[in-house]
Specification:
Blueprint (H helix, E strand, L loop, with lengths): L28 H5 L13 E6 L5 H13 L4 E7 L2 H10 L4 E5 L5 H15 L4 E7 L2 H23 E7 L3 H13 L16 H10 L3 E6 L10 E5 L6
Parallel strand pairs: 1-2, 1-4, 2-3, 4-5
Antiparallel strand pairs: 5-7, 6-7
Length: 237
């Protein structure tokens, strides 16, 4: 029996939180990994990673291999997703160095318990890098402008490097249409102020934090790009 987070109306494209089953059959991890630059990472010290919205963990595994091949061997990853079925899948297929947790990243109390404990156990205050692949739209649709803003501010504060892959506005329209066909509407959708310029809006929010944009990738075949920011100590005062 599918849990409440899974697709509605028998339509595997109609999911409320972006928790698609078999997602990587349609969006190859290789397409994202090849967009990651190789010159921004700090070598010579442990690399501690947070992957938000990890789905079944296939991309997370690819991230680990990329980092090991290009930067260092001492890698540990905390990967979280809202869907317990996807996390179960990820754990079943997981190799070493990755800890998977079922977590709604917007559940502040539980988020702080899990993430702060992980950082404490690693004896660090920030992750080496925070990855957020195609997750911002689902936070925006379910938690509104304020929710998206608070999420971006949060990840800006916990990562030395922050990598975000925003979904453009046309993806919002497609998601809303699929859900309407499954007799579900996002209650906050009509009140969103950030719309057609959502990618630029996300850049502005991140730039207002203690972050400096160091590069962005070209767009993938599904027309998304990676925004790559680095914590700036000069902007933190």
């Amino acid at each position: 029996m599918e849990n409440d987070l899974q697709f509605r109306g028998g339509n595997p494209g109609a999911v409320q939180f972006g928790n698609f089953m078999n997602y990587y059959q349609f969006h190859s991890p290789k397409e994202r990994i090849k967009l990651l630059p190789k010159h921004i990472w700090k070598a010579g010290k442990p690399c501690v990673v947070l992957d938000i919205g990890c789905n079944s963990g296939i991309l997370t595994e690819a991230i680990k291999e990329f980092l090991k091949e290009n930067i260092m061997e001492d890698i540990s990853i905390l990967a979280v997703d809202i869907d317990p079925l996807l996390i179960t899948r990820a754990k079943e297929n997981s190799t070493n160095d990755i800890t998977f947790h079922c977590l709604d990243i917007m559940d502040i109390s539980r988020r702080d318990d899990i993430i702060n404990e992980y950082l404490k156990n690693k004896h660090i205050e920030k992750f080496s890098v925070v990855f957020c692949f195609s997750t911002t739209m689902w936070i925006h649709l379910n938690y509104g402008d304020g929710g998206l803003r608070s999420f971006l501010e949060y990840i800006a504060g916990i990562g030395e490097i922050v990598i975000v892959e925003p979904q453009p506005w046309k993806c919002y329209r497609s998601a809303v249409k699929r859900m309407k066909q499954a007799n579900f509407t996002f209650p906050l959708f009509s009140s969103l102020k950030m719309r057609e310029t959502i990618e630029r809006d996300i850049e502005i929010i991140l730039s207002l934090q203690s972050l400096e944009k160091i590069t962005e990738s070209e767009r993938t075949k599904w027309e998304r790009k990676l925004l790559i920011y680095k914590y700036s100590y000069s902007n933190s005062s």
